[in-house]
Amino acid sequence: MLTIISIINARRIKTRQKISKSKMQKAKLRIKMQNMDATNKQYGLIFDVDGVIADTEAVNARASIKVFADLFGIEGVVREDFEAGLGRGAEEYVRAAARVHGLELTDEQIEKATQLRQEYFLTALSHEPLPPFPGVLQLMNAAMQREDFRVAIATSGTLEKSRAVLEATHVPYRKMVYINGNDVTHKKPDPELFLLAAERMGIEPANCAVIEDAPNGVEAAKAAGAKCIAVTNTTAAAKLSKADLVCDSLEQIDLDMIQELIDSN
Length: 265
What we know:
The protein has two domains: 42-55 and 131-263, Rossmann fold, CATH 3.40.50; 56-127, DNA polymerase, domain 1, CATH 1.10.150. The chain has a six-stranded parallel sheet with strand order 3-2-1-4-5-6, with helices on both faces. The chain has helices spanning 4-40, 56-72, 90-100, 107-127, 136-144, 159-168, 192-201, 215-223, 255-263, and strands at 43-47, 149-154, 177-179, 208-212, 227-231, 245-247. The protein has 265 residues and is an alpha/beta fold.
């Protein structure tokens, strides 16, 4: 015979079972949602141009050395004199070498120098081939074929100069987010360039990886809150140590490595 106590106890057991089942269902739902979030996560891959996509630094240096000779009558300028200005835009690039040679340039002189430098650069580019660095186009194309990746170009170079490089190296930049020096007020190491690229892609900076070749670019990427992969195309590895990953060639990098790097946040 069932007593009131036994009935109450039976109901309590059923209630506990229901609660337990409900908790399990909620836990399963949480796991399912987490898996869905992980599946739907979007990643951003941002490429610098000069020194990352191709060896434009050699052309930049030659054009700039000619500017110092033709405009200021200064001989003996070498590529290393421009190192402090790498990635910081044309003005700082020119100022870097000027300071090495004890020359303080006015804003007017800087404007003339950068205009002439761009003319020399574009002329050189029209007369000689500019192959992309190994692995660059392969990594770009692989990312563009993935639904969970977005790709951007972000460079301190001017629209005209950077577009000439992208076209010479056959980068499909029209299918990507494309940010150049004309789009921003502050140049590297300020993070504005990379923050704008992330915004245009619609992806949080923390879910982006920036590929850079210069210390100023690495600093800008980290200041933006992104991961940074530095490639030693133009700068020694020791000077790129603030990057999350340093490699000798983008042939060593694949999307799984990039995804794992971003997910390590």
